[in-house]
Write a structure and sequence with these properties.
The protein has a single domain, classed as 3-Layer(aba) Sandwich (Rossmann fold). Helix content is about 30%, strand content about 15%. The chain is built from 7 helices and 5 strands; from the N terminus they run βαβαβαβαααβα. The C terminus is likely disordered. The two termini are about 30 Å apart.
Amino acid sequence: MSPNDVSVVLVHGAWADGSSWAKIIAPLAAEGIKVVAAPLPLTSFRDDVAALDRTLERVTGPVVLAGHAYAGAVIAATRSEKVRALVYVAALAPDESETVADVFYRTAPHPQAPKLAPDGNGLIYLPEAAFAAAFAPNASQEELVVLASVQRPISPACLTVAMERPLWKDRPSWFLVAEQDRMIVQETQRFMAERMKARMPSITRRL
């Protein structure tokens, strides 16, 4: 099976959309790799898994499934037989019976991480200042303006559902640890990657 036979499906995290993968999509496409960014509604964990499954239905052939942050939980909840491998980019990987919140809050947050709480409509928005302080501290000013303007809020219903058997127990997995991440601290990322027995690249990316 050659790389050109495999599709890469990219799944965004909270407060983002598929365009957050723009700098990844272009290089992959330039290599002749088929790439799809799956849109998540972020309205509930069940809704997000269903949205991912709809995207996977549109893709033919084997899939490498990549998730960032919250999406790590979502990619591990699909049961699609097309998925041959999982890639975690500073992503959350709850084990069976754990929730996203369980792993996100397992250690003290980074000092610059924002405090999160639902608004009057029960949705969690990221404070505008948090984009530069924690969410994307290496982004340009223009990129920060766009990120804050188009952010997609996340529902608490995405964070409180107990995980069933995660797919990473049954598929090869890779985990890119972002050592300077301010949303999911490095210690938590390494804990999850080691528990998963995921392969960890030696390079470090600032996310």
